[in-house]
Amino acid sequence: MDALEILFTATFWAAAIRIASPLIFATMGELICERAGVLNLGIEGIMTAGAFAGWFTVYAGGDLWTGVVVAALAGAMFGLLHAALTVPLGLSQHVVGIGVTLLATSLTYFTYRLLLPEVTSPPKIAPFQPWPIPGLSAIPVVGEALFNQTPLTYLAFLAVAVVAWVLNRTPLGLAIGAAGENPAAVEAQGISVTGIRMGAVIAGSALMAVGGAFLTMSAFNSFFFEMINGRGWIAIALVVFGSWRPGKALLGAILFAAFDAFQVRLQQLSGGVVPYQVFLMMPYVLSILALVLVARRATYPKALMIPYQKGER
Amino acid sequence: MRLEPKPQPSLVAALIYPLAAIAATMGFAALLVLAAGASPLSVFELVARGAAGSQFALLETLTRATPLIFTGLAVAVAFRARLWNIGAEAQLYIGAVVTVVLGTGALPLPAVVLVPVIMAAAMLAGALLLAGPAFLKTRFGVDEVVTTLLLNFIVLLFVSMLLEGPLKDPMGLGWPQSQKVIAEAQLPRLIQGKRLHLGFVLALVAAAVCWVLMKKTALGYEMRAVGHSPEAARFAGIPVNRVLMKTAFLSGGLAALAGFSEVAGLKGNLTLDLSPGFGYSGIVVAMLAMLNPLGVVLSAIFVAGIFVGADAMSRSAGVPSYIADVMVATALLSMVTALLFARYRVRWR
Amino acid sequence: MQPGARPEAETVLRLSGITKRFGALTANDGISLALARGEVVALLGENGAGKTTLMNILFGHYVADEGSVEAFGRLLPPGDPRAALAAGIGMVHQHFTLADNMTALENIALGTESLWRPTLDRSGARQRIARLSADFGLAVAPDAMVGVLSVGERQRVEILKALYREARILILDEPTAVLTPAETDALFATLRKLTATGLSIIFISHKLNEVLAVADRVLVLRGGRLVGERPTKGASRQELAALMVGQEVEAPRVAARPPGPPALALEGVSTARRGTGVALRGLTLTLHAGEITGLAGVSGNGQAALAGVISGMETPTAGVVSVAGQAMRGWSPRAAIAAGIGRIPEDRHAVGSIADMSVTENVISERYRSPRFSRSGLLDWAAARAFAETLIRDYDVRCPSPDTRIRLLSGGNMQKLILGRALDGNPSVILANQPARGLDVGAVAYVHKRLVAARDRGAAVLLISEDLDEIMALSDRILVISGGALSRPSLRGERSIRDLGALMAGHAGEPEGVDAA
């Protein structure tokens, strides 16, 4: 098959959407944090924790949706830790973020070993199955690509819509956006900056964790070490690429996933002439390129990474 | 609540807060040990014994500390100038690649010449690797945290490519590993028959050099000034971008030495598991040392001791050795928190 | 009895015995005051007298160590801005608290509805804002991004924020600092309309004229204490000034002398536009040796760009900078220092000093590469420390030791160190950008004395200030900057405050800048 023909097949786009789903969750989670003024570098570890928590809940006999909720709670817990250290205490968001990633990852691995000391190969669960949407899934190409996915993918798209609505339309969204731009404006209107920022980080972290859970509960059916594989860092690049807007970030994630799906197909077509590692590098290289591309005109939330103390101006 | 700066911290306070952080770390670890159904006291004893309970244990800890001193220094100098180098892992691997490329017979030189040449080449490679993100930061304003993190993945894939391609050991039974470096490229062992090698001495020298650099030289002063306030540094006539580039060179070079010393001093060849996250642990080492180069030596030995001790403990007590990673991460978070309280007091009203 | 308010007027606000300490400093010391319905009370005091602290306590940003706040007969819980807002207190801060990435409407509506409402009621908000704008002369485009609004417009948004919440008490913190005289007049007209509806106002200022023009009653604060209370009617300027300052301050004596040769010249200098800042377009300026040139103007009219060029922070996109007749190439802060320009930056905390470094480390920051402090890349800390000790002694800096982090010093002491650093080595040109802002009276006098001394020994001084009194007291020659262009210079005493004010507003009956065509 010709490489470009791939771009018009439904299976290709279905794969792209599948690859995009965890990134969408993670990107939305990070976006909420950053709009409120907090860079959350705990993302990689929080996704790891979510992946494990969701999967283990199901493995231990829980139902799939319970697994999603448990994953979100695990994410929220690490979000709370991150928020407590960076918001009221104002510690370096870089250092704390890295620390939370290290802690969440190592705690997850520790717990995995503790709960499953005997296993040699990771045990499997019955993951989410595709949920064709009646009617819509019958549309040629688009139907199969978009409307024959697992419920978690639909949830990812729903998350974008909700995040976009909240940030753009609601009083709460205004307060979040203002907290990341000029926290004093929020405080002066009688809203607690600490509350808004902590809430944003906790909610964002819960979303990231669900992104991790997508991998163990929808894309695959088991948990293995290092499975997040830099997706968290890519999500951070996507937030910048999407100019901190949910819609643009969604497009970025899908575009990115399409490239990723495309390189997998290319890899199959190349017949081993080019080392496979070159293809595997592409997502990371692409993320760096995307950052360079938008860096000049990126308008960061002005108070991003700047701690705020009450009464400060 | 509100944070107010304290006047000059007293010596007692400077000691009490870090100790409290270590206590908090131990407390959290004790909970995990209890969860694993073991007794914290006996587990801690096993860890301590495994880390420093015998000559063998102690030497093993110092051996493990060697790469951590290098990566810790790399992070310490970079963070001082507020260059967020989270890519020490990648720089380490590039240093190892250069060591293997030049050390497997390509340069037929006597050891006294070959080893310094390889060291210099490895440092240069690591320096150039970090110079990229530093350039993107100074020139385009691209956040170096994300670029250095992503480079870790790229470089590891690159190494994997090399190990399955040009650098693959033909005698390696198909494993992705390189050939061994020749005898002239190896760092001698410090004690006959033990694993501790000259790399440890080099790490101590590097720490001393970094300390002098930060405390006594104009460049060290510039780096600290840029780290504290780029705007004020620029106003005072300090060439901020140039200082950041110099910092990147120094930091990348130091991290590459970790890879060099692991290959030339310990492993002899390059594999994909050369580093169990020395680059990331370097961040913890540097933060525990409060970015002080001499402190890095102590904190690297401390962190290495936890890893080595936990390995030994896990074999006998059945508590997963990942508890070491948990302790190290907890130590990082509790230490930065403790240092905050050492400098600020919390007023609730 | 409070003149200006009807005798039977109810008391809307009562502060009783407010005391607030920051470490060793007592910012407010047992202050009590009462505000009547429809009354304008001015809080007069020097910078650092405790005005802003008092208002931050009233508004709940700070919690007082002692004392209580009562609004409309009800005690306010301490440290709760929400309670203050709910009680009908609105505050317009000196530094605006607006989010630039949101519209005026969004800024005004922020926090006025439950955060959990599914949508923001934009049309309702738009109607109410339009009505308030019309009623009180506060013209604002509700859907404009705040980031693109002028300073005057932003202030109107701030006032609308308070009115939108139906504030009955309005606190204005130094509201005129950023306004032209004409905008100030419009503001006062708005305030009169507001008091006519029964709103009460606390007006914080250190400018006597304004206080006398707008207030019914004046309270004078000094060193954290309430030192006097006068009805405006019949109050004398002299008496208020004496109360405010507390001590006879010797005005710097500036003896007339002929100017020397040009020390620094900018010819046709232009700068790049940065954000909302005003850029320079072909600006020409010459500073003469032995002369203080005062640059007056409303903040944000190109002062930042001009100071940026002279300090080396900004590289001109066109034009020539020459020092002592020598055209400069490769302009940078380092080049400016090397050319003998002593610089006192506007922001001493973020630009002039490195907060977390010691006094010693800060004072050598411009000269650490000189043979005096380093040899072949190695720093001579003994020499650096000796230099710091010299500055501490010569400039009368109060600090525990040269090893103290500069963050822990008071503003005045920090400024003295920056002054000492800038004047070290007798620079031929001195850029003093707002050198006295935020300092206490003693420190102001000290800074002025040093600048005049530098001028007397032959330095060319550019004094940039928003305080016309300061400009008029010190300058041999006065320029006004407006919209990035300079007015024709006037000599000492040639123009009145009113004339300068007109120039500052940018509508004067004379050609401005260089392009008179």
Keywords:
heterotrimer; B: 349 residues; mainly alpha; two-stranded antiparallel ribbon; 13 helices; 2% strand; C: 517 residues; six-stranded mixed sheet; globular; disordered N terminus; disordered C terminus
Describe the structure.
The complex is a heterotrimer of chains A (313), B (349) and C (517). The N and C termini of chain A lie far apart (62 Å). In chain A, helix 1 (10-35) packs antiparallel against helix 9, helix 10 (231-241) crosses helix 11 and helix 11 (246-270) runs antiparallel to helix 12 (276-295). The longest helix of chain A has 27 residues, at 193-219. Chain A has helices at residues 10-35, 43-59, 64-86, 93-115, 142-146, 151-169, 171-181, 183-188, 193-219, 231-241, 246-270, 276-295. Chain A contains 12 helices and no strands. Helices cover 68% and strands 0% of the residues of chain A. Chain A is an all-alpha fold and 313 residues long. Chain B is 72% helix and 2% strand. Chain B is mainly alpha-helical. Chain B has helices at 11-35, 40-52, 55-80, 88-103, 111-140, 144-164, 198-216, 218-228, 230-235, 240-267, 278-288, 293-317, 323-343; strands spanning 2-5, 344-347. Chain B contains 13 helices and 2 strands. A two-stranded antiparallel ribbon of chain B has the order 1-2. By secondary structure, chain C is α/β, with parallel strands linked by helices. Chain C contains 16 helices and 23 strands. In chain C, the strands form 5 sheets. In chain C, strands 13, 16, 19, 20, 21, 22 and 23 form a 7-stranded mixed beta sheet that branches. In chain C, strands 6-7-8-3-9-10 form a 6-stranded mixed beta sheet, with helices on both faces. In chain C, strand 7 (169-173), helix 6 (181-196) and strand 8 (200-205) form a beta-alpha-beta unit. The radius of gyration of chain C is 24 Å and the shape is globular.
